[in-house]
Amino acid sequence: MKLLEYEQSLETPLRQATITLLLKDDEVLLAMKKRGFGAGKWNGVGGKPNNDEDIYSAAIRESQEEIGVTPLNIKNVGILSFYFPLVPKEKSYDQTVLIFTATDWKGTPIESDEMKPKWFKIQDVPYDQMWVDDVVWMPKVFAGALIKGSFMFGENDKLVEHYINEVKSLD
Asked: Could you please report the per-residue DSSP string of the chain?
């Protein structure tokens, strides 16, 4: 099934999740996922909102839990949908992820049971140790673009199809 067909076939909204990228000068803080979905890959910090928690609060809470920092003035810079049609629906891998950036925060990044944070020069981001979609959208975010897009994965997390657009607003 093609990506657009798959999106149109969905009858319920996707669960929401977050990714937050801390930025300073020419560096980004990524974290090695130590367990669960995405284990062994570098990524931003984030996760799902709790019941009755808005997505912005979830992004802040996940940063506090995963790396011990409280992002200040987070900015929503992207909305990306991820589809895994070969994964059973009950695993609920399909999700819409709001991408946030922060250039200010309280605290110092620390390792947790779930994530091991590390600063990378933006030109040295280890895309070969990340989700294959990251090399498509992250450089756009680093360049200051607002983005919307969708990604469909096949067997072994292979990127099957995607589209991504730079937009003027995320409304």
From this structure: --HHHHHHH--SPPEEEEEEEEEETTEEEEEEE-SSTTTT-EE-B--PPPTT--HHHHHHHHHHHHHS-EEES-EEEEEEEEE-TTS-GGG---EEEEEEEESEEES-----SSEEEEEEEGGG--GGGB-TTHHHHHHHHHTT-EEEEEEEE-GGG-EEEEEEEEES---
Residue 35 makes CB contacts below 8 A (sequence gap 6+) with 113, 114
Contact between 18 and 55 under an 8 Å Cβ cutoff? The reply is yes
Residue 77: closest CA among 125, 25, 141 = 141
Per-run averaged pLDDT (10 residues), the chain, 171 residues: 91 94 98 92 96 96 98 98 88 92 98 97 98 97 98 93 96 80
Of the CA atoms within 13 Å of residue 21, those in its CB half-sphere come to 27
Nearest-angstrom CA–CA distance, 42 and 131? 8
89: alpha, beta or left? (left if phi > 0; alpha if psi -120 to 50): alpha
Single out the residue of 147, 150, 170 nearest to residue 160, CA to CA: 150
